[in-house]
Amino acid sequence: MDMIVLVIVLALILLSVPIGFALFLATVVCFLIFTDLSLIMLGQAMFLKLDKFSLMSIMFFILAGTLMARGAMARKIVDFANAIVGHYKAGMPISGVLSCALFGAVSGSALATLSAIGGLMVPALKKKGMSEDFSVGLLTSSSILGIIIPPSIPMIIYCLVTDVSVAKLFMAGFLPGFLIFVIFSIYCVVHVMRHHKVSESDQTFSATKLWEAGVAGIWALNMPIIIFGGIFSGIFTATEAAVVAAVYAYLVEFFIYRELTIKEIARITINAGVLIASILIITAGSMVLSDYLTIQLIPNRITMWITSFVSSPILFIVMVNILLLIAGAFIEVIAAILILAPILFPVAMALGVDPIHFGVIMCINLGIGYITPPVGVNCYLSASLFEMKATQVFISIVPTLILLLISLAILSYFPTISTLLPDLLLK
């Protein structure tokens, strides 16, 4: 009976009830049946839970990412990435992966990364002779770098729930993101060698072109320097960095690149506001559900139950990976973190798992959910962007999905990859 609330949530989601409302309705039902507490406290709890300064960072990173995706900054990043690696035979697809990594360093969103970079790179790859399945599969999967390389909205949510340092978790995301970039780049080289007919790249490396691309994109490329330089130097917090990023994006897009009109900027801001509102509704519902679970001592019971027969952190990580991969296939990433982190985090701490390492593993696991059926929101976005059937997109991501699972296995059992930079630089 303790877990009936999660059963109700899953049933409502399967009935197509919006996730935020499903979480809230399930909590209300269980409060009425299993507690004597007044429902007034639900309203108070939602207000108090949303009255968090750190939540503002999510809103402003979304706004900054949306502005960059619709403006010129995303294209400048792609041009710079192509100038770095485009001269190689597999340079074009590698530049697509690199562009996702660079854009992820300023947007914090997998959806924004796919929309901005995929919309530019997939047509370019097809024009160069790459197959549609390879191009779409690669960019759809590479967009996950948007939530692995900081700033990352799921990482902020995890830190909000577990009280882990945002700066440390951000720092922990760089090496895992680099590992995935390297693995995807090797895949690009192998694929091009096996399937691409052109023996040489269409262009040669040019220091002049690299310099020109760097100068043209300097305002976009400065964004991560400002964000991370400010956070890690202590000049401002992650929340203040998000505000700086949003203001910077407004100024650069409107006054420097001048490709967006006031009306377009206003429309982009409204669209970002709608997305932010939906995330806040999910957050509110998840927070009251978390309160119910805490009142019923469910996390404590689960901790005792798991630790009674699981004493190995390695076995626990195996269980968590399986659970999160399944959860990510059905539940939106932010909702999954808000629901599962309060339950799994105490168990991880009891077994001696590093909280930073656990946060990275959780974000990567649930990030893979962006491309796995039946939810797989990035696959549906790709289907819409590139006018393909969703089933074809799901098939196209199979090779890169396997690579992501290999990356996850490596990161799961070599925690030093995640904890090295925070331990060295942020003691």
Can you describe what's shown?
The protein is mostly helical and 427 residues long. The protein contains 24 helices and no strands. Helix 5 packs antiparallel against helix 13. The chain has one domain. The radius of gyration is 22 Å and the shape is globular.
**Secondary-structure element order, N to C:** HHHHHHHHHHHHHHHHHHHHHHHH
Strands, count: 0
Low-confidence segments: none
Strand content: under 5%
Rg calculated over all Cα atoms: 22 Å
This entry's quaternary arrangement is single chain
| Helicity level | over 70%
The coarse silhouette is: globular
Total helical elements: 24
State mean pLDDT (0 to 100 scale).
84
| Distance N to C terminus | 43 Å
Number of domains: 1
Outline:
The chain has 24 helices and no strands. It is an all-alpha fold.
Task: Fill in the keyword field for this structure.
427 residues; mainly alpha; 24 helices
Fold blueprint:
Blueprint: H1 4-14, H2 19-34, H3 40-50, H4 55-70, H5 73-85, H6 91-107, H7 110-127, H8 132-142, H9 145-148, H10 153-162, H11 166-172, H12 174-195, H13 207-216, H14 218-233, H15 238-257, H16 262-295, H17 298-309, H18 313-330, H19 333-350, H20 355-368, H21 377-385, H22 390-396, H23 398-413, H24 416-425
